[in-house]
Amino acid sequence: MALVSRGSHHLKPGVANSFDQQAGNLASLVRSYYQRGWVPATSSNFSVRSEDNEDWIVISQSGKDKEYIASHDFMLVDLEGQCIQPKGAKPSAETLLHTSLYKNTEIGAVLHTHSLDSIMAAEVLRENGVISMQGLELLKAFSGIETHESTIDIPVFQNIQDMKELSERVLHSFSKSGWPVGYVIEGHGIYTWGKSLAEAKRHLEALEYLFNFHLRRKNHGGH
Amino acid sequence: MALVSRGSHHLKPGVANSFDQQAGNLASLVRSYYQRGWVPATSSNFSVRSEDNEDWIVISQSGKDKEYIASHDFMLVDLEGQCIQPKGAKPSAETLLHTSLYKNTEIGAVLHTHSLDSIMAAEVLRENGVISMQGLELLKAFSGIETHESTIDIPVFQNIQDMKELSERVLHSFSKSGWPVGYVIEGHGIYTWGKSLAEAKRHLEALEYLFNFHLRRKNHGGH
Amino acid sequence: MALVSRGSHHLKPGVANSFDQQAGNLASLVRSYYQRGWVPATSSNFSVRSEDNEDWIVISQSGKDKEYIASHDFMLVDLEGQCIQPKGAKPSAETLLHTSLYKNTEIGAVLHTHSLDSIMAAEVLRENGVISMQGLELLKAFSGIETHESTIDIPVFQNIQDMKELSERVLHSFSKSGWPVGYVIEGHGIYTWGKSLAEAKRHLEALEYLFNFHLRRKNHGGH
Amino acid sequence: MALVSRGSHHLKPGVANSFDQQAGNLASLVRSYYQRGWVPATSSNFSVRSEDNEDWIVISQSGKDKEYIASHDFMLVDLEGQCIQPKGAKPSAETLLHTSLYKNTEIGAVLHTHSLDSIMAAEVLRENGVISMQGLELLKAFSGIETHESTIDIPVFQNIQDMKELSERVLHSFSKSGWPVGYVIEGHGIYTWGKSLAEAKRHLEALEYLFNFHLRRKNHGGH
């Protein structure tokens, strides 16, 4: 995806009337992922670009239990990760990993889970810094891929607690090697995104499926 | 199942009043399969023969998310896979794999999933082009089988993106070796069918169970 | 459990007014087990002794899909497995395996599933004709067991399609070796029971848990 | 957590009006854990400190099926495990393992499950009496841990049926080695706790996730 620059046309927060619906849709998806075991307890973060202002991000607040997450557990931040509303809401430490993606592409949603398959894949399948997956029909879930005879490479980054540094390493890598459909942080989890929430969902579920298949193949003595 | 020829007695689309109920029943089943992980994201296709006209097929439209699929995500096509209604609805690329089965047998429903067990079975258990399974009571889920001392062979086909070619290879193989209860496409998923939706459901769940058992047996060092 | 003889005091079928509630409770449990994958498609049978007449059994009818099973999918049979009501309802071929248990003990419920863990356990863990399990706190789920330092032996029988012969072999074995808490049929599934439906449920879930643990231990190289 | 002494200011049982809500919240969580397979049948115990009196504990009654557990399946006990209400309710034999924790710390909730991963972890991963886990982002789910470069040690105790003796061994070990975030009893299950039910939930789900990861890593030949 190409880098974009876009004008800033902030609406007043009080005018933002898509928030509840966007947060509610996202909350519903997150609760579903909790049930799959991808987002234990209060872990993981999820966001969509606001329909009211393209420089605003609707993102889950810090420390909310994902089994029960609802629209009021989300907040609006700007592209620097600063709180717009509700006043005093605490953004997650990883908010920067979300906003830096929105700032540099036209994506509309970012999904981050702690799924064990993504972590195992990084540990078991990584070669030359990427998890390379090919040969499955489901690769066609990624925009632009039209045959199973394709390969996707998911880069793996070392886990560090300095989010600014981590987000810079991620973007630096993407600027050199091109934007992947997602990336994994060692011992931590997966980030993926899409033009819309629907596309990001498709990418996440496809990646989980691909990780799972390649881990099972490895388990059965496959390559 | 024997090949059948049947008269064409098209009703006007507007008269088709079983559509909503048939699509709704099928949608409910598909959502249930989504929860099992057999149809990630927008993958997979499902169809039943219309009760209004035996030359019409009720089939899932292209690109619908299976977690939320509902009756309005289905469409009517004819046996060539051409859209009857709703106007402008886009059939999946794999529609031909469904209609070619309906055209050549008296089946009433076709279920296709991307289940990982079916793909793993094709990779791990295949011998001489088929996955051969025997010895389980659940084999009696297939019409005509009355003892666990039976064997079913599920043929495996190479995945290709040319659906016309693929459907011809499938039918050619069936015309030579007889109709199986289902088949697997490498790295892609499973197709199965039945006289009714209830029978196709029984076949799909039995096949998944059989794949799962034989994979687990293999994992435990069995044959 | 001791053999019992009991007087016969048939009520008229029309008087049986506990049927709906007993069948409904059982149906609810079966749907829950379907969701766990223990009763794929139309497989498996479930029964409770009628509260209206101790010589009547409420049992699932043949061929009902367990995902949707409801009280109207059950029937009343006598201890020979003959239909009492509704008229014309078809008992499962395995009804005899249920009624022969009720006839010879005071149990109130029989649960039979096709769970893969029970089948794998029979294949992987059997020694001298039994699956022997010990050392787990959950053994206390079985009536009369008060410490984890206990052992239960689950006998395994060969699968045959002659239900009369099979039920005789089962009862003959029990009369020699004492009544176990359940038994497994090779490549088929598990039978367990209890004084009440609640106890049978506790036994089934404990057995599944024990099978699963011992299979996992075996997988990790344990004994 | 430091030991605390606190004044006793018993309210009359009839005044306890938080009971229903606290028991209801806990019941809802337990039903959710049942669905994950962590609390088969009637096993496991769950408790929270009463909001009406810090020397009262809301705890599940003995022998209740966890699939259906509701607020009326709980009871109030004092810190010696004696029943306060409802009159005649039977506390679980393991009540002492709960109350001894409340007596010696300021925790507000104790969760105990029979999860197979906790038991397998004790069997497969234990070294020098503890399950040692490190390197995962989810370690930050534990209060006071701020980086994945941390280690938690979960002590493992031998299973015995004398609850008084077991609870003394547990507390003696904690007084020597410091309070862990939870402990495992061999062949039995896990105990964990937190200042609030929310924190205990976070701890339990994080521990299950960590066990699962380390078992999978071991399975893939990792250390």
What's this model, at a glance?
4 copies of one chain form a homotetramer. With 223 residues, chain A is of the alpha+beta class. Chain A has helices at 19-35, 95-104, 116-124, 163-177, 197-219; strands spanning 45-49, 56-60, 74-78, 83-85, 109-113, 130-134, 151-157, 182-185, 189-194.
Please tell me about this protein's structure.
The structure is a homotetramer of 223-residue chains. With 223 residues, chain A is α+β, with helices and mostly antiparallel strands. The first copy, chain A, is built from five helices and nine strands, in the order αββββαβαββαββα. Chain A has a nine-stranded mixed β-sheet with strand order 4-3-2-1-5-9-8-7-6, with helices on both faces. In chain A, helix 2 packs parallel to helix 4 and helix 3 crosses helix 5 (197-219). The first copy, chain A, is globular and about 55 Å long. The A-B interface holds A 32, 135-138, 141, 146-148, 198, 201-202, 205-206, 208-209, 212-213, 216-217, 219-220, 222 and B 37, 40-43, 65, 67, 114, 116, 119-120, 123-124, 159, 161, 185, 187-189, 215, 218-219.
